[in-house]
Write a structure and sequence with these properties.
This protein is of the alpha/beta class and about 350 residues long. It has a single domain, classed as Alpha/Beta hydrolase fold, catalytic domain (Rossmann fold, 3-Layer(aba) Sandwich). It has 13 helices and 11 strands.
Length: about 350
């Protein structure tokens, strides 16, 4: 297990030649209060903040801490927990970001680089593993994606230890120094395979009795371009939980292919939670709630042909091939652009 931790730079460090607080910096001057008081699902500001965090989770701890300071979490404590075992397809990296007053913690999982995600998903062990989940009225075993499950387990106990410290009013960092207050609100997020990890850990937190102190503080789960993580029976059981049905919010940008995998050849999979899809249009586009979640790809041919559209765009070739799904639409920057509320600055103040 690799652990890395840091404290985010102060506003004075981030802006040595400018006033520390100006119009547009930080992006959300009252971000802690915004997160603690959020009661819309999805909340547009929370959707955007967590999308930024998920996008930068592909970087290192210092970068994630710095970006989230720019968003409004000045002097945040950041802990990175990572485990990588190539032969076991374990590539789990999670970031815990704690506000300087201790009230808010964001748990963000890193995904897999968009240019590698399809290869990773098709090569990864998709054979199911059975987990027990005491869903309301149905305390049974359910099939979940074995690879995703291993990735969550790889860093789970380091995360639970850090969250326990946060509840006790201590730092998520291994030093565990005393904070001004304990954790009031927890958000879990991730892009791509990071979203799968976020959703799977949330089901564990909400259904395992010993994790109830963490569950009480869990406000919402926001994922971006998340693949399916379990069988239709598992998805149905999760949707019986009011929280998982309403407060696990899955964002899908346009024709992003990843929410449609694993494909049918890998076995039956299904989504749960509330699905919102961005529909581009001439005037920008809108997010719409899909009452019927995205289904699995019919076959592997759609996976192996879709990257051609991505390559075509990269070399600036006009894309006229009528694919029904796109790996290009999986790129995190598209999610950021589509989710940024009107009048709100970007993480760099633009």
């Amino acid at each position: 297990m690799k652990l890395d931790d840091c404290t985010a730079p102060s506003y004075a460090d981030l802006r040595p030649l400018k006033p520390t607080v100006t119009d547009g910096f930080p992006v959300y001057p009252d971000l802690v209060d915004t997160l603690v008081s959020a009661n819309l699902y999805p909340d547009p500001d929370v959707s955007y903040v967590l999308a930024v965090c998920s996008a930068y989770a592909y970087a290192d701890a210092q970068t994630v801490a710095m970006i989230m300071a720019r968003m409004g979490l000045e002097d945040n404590n950041c802990l990175m927990a990572a485990e990588s075992v190539d032969v076991m397809f374990i590539t789990s990296t999670a970031y815990l970001l704690q506000s300087k007053d201790g009230r808010v913690v964001i748990l963000c999982y890193r995904g897999t680089a968009p240019v590698d995600v399809i290869t990773w998903l098709t090569d990864l062990e998709v054979d199911p593993v059975k987990i027990q989940m005491p869903a309301p009225g149905s305390p049974h075993e359910y099939d979940v994606h074995a690879g995703f499950y291993r990735n969550v387990l790889a860093t789970r106990y380091a995360i639970e230890g850090a969250l326990t410290r946060a509840i006790e009013g201590r730092s998520v960092r291994p030093s565990g120094e005393t904070m001004p207050g304990g954790m009031e609100a927890l958000f879990i997020t991730g892009h791509s395979l990071g979203g799968a990890s976020a959703a799977l850990l949330a089901t564990m937190i909400l259904t395992e009795p010993e994790l109830e102190p963490i569950a009480r503080r869990l406000r919402a789960v926001y994922t971006y371009g998340q693949p399916m993580i379990g069988s239709p029976q598992f998805a149905k059981a999760c949707n019986k939980h009011e929280f998982l049905h309403e407060k696990l919010i899955r964002h899908i940008y346009a024709s992003d292919i990843v929410p449609q995998v694993p494909p049918v050849e890998s076995g039956p999979f299904a989504h749960f939670g509330a699905e919102y899809q961005f529909k581009p249009s001439g005037d920008g586009g809108t997010w719409r709630h899909n009452k019927h979640p995205r289904k699995q790809l019919r076959n592997l041919v759609e996976i192996f042909t879709t990257p051609l559209s991505f390559l075509a765009k990269q070399i600036r070739v006009t894309r006229d091939i009528p694919f029904h799904a796109s790996i290009n639409d999986h790129l995190p920057q598209y999610y950021l652009d589509a989710l940024k509320p009107e009048g709100v600055r970007s993480e760099y103040g633009t």
